[in-house]
Fold each of these.
Amino acid sequence: VQLQASGGGMVQAGGSLRLSCAASGTTFGLNAVGWYRQVPGKQREVVARISSDRSATYADAVKGRFTISRDIVKNTLYLQMNSLKLEDTAIYYCNLRKKISEYWGQGTQVTVSS
């Protein structure tokens, strides 16, 4: 099983990025999926998740700016990030929880500059 995250990069504050996470060896299906982020010296934190009941939840810090979605046909998870702020700078990881297993992507760096 592999999750391949992409789409990170450097963007100015106020800009947008869309992260993608492609799965191989498994399917996202209707399992719980999510995006997390981590900065050096801090714990990894949840950014957005879609639960197995298809409900989406967001961290307070990104509500109204980020949107999580998945394309079951393309087997890809997305995170649309708008109105980016300096504090959104982090490595972003995609996550899949399938029954008792949990999988992580390799991370993609997002850097927001002023």
Amino acid sequence: VQLQASGGGLVQAGGSLRLSCAAFTRTFSSYAMAWFRQDPGKERTIVAAITWSGEDTYYADSVKGRYTISRDNAKNTVYLQMDSLKPEDTRVYYCYAARGFYAHWGQGTQVTVSS
């Protein structure tokens, strides 16, 4: 599965960004999807996840109430709406697809929040 993330950029604190991740596969609706983020030299940490149907979601405590993950299976795309952004949200963000034993990473997209 090829994943292509987009939507990162520079925003002021308190602002919003929406990340998108397009999946190039005919079986997108069978994958659970997630967003991770990473500081240089550190491990990636999960930000949010969504089941294949979109019925269930998970959020890291640090982003609860500010981020919203969603998906459109007809468009093979998963989204991450990020509101009330803080400087500490500055990271490279990665999308992730998982089904059974299979997992795929997209390329990162940089999110920078200025104070």
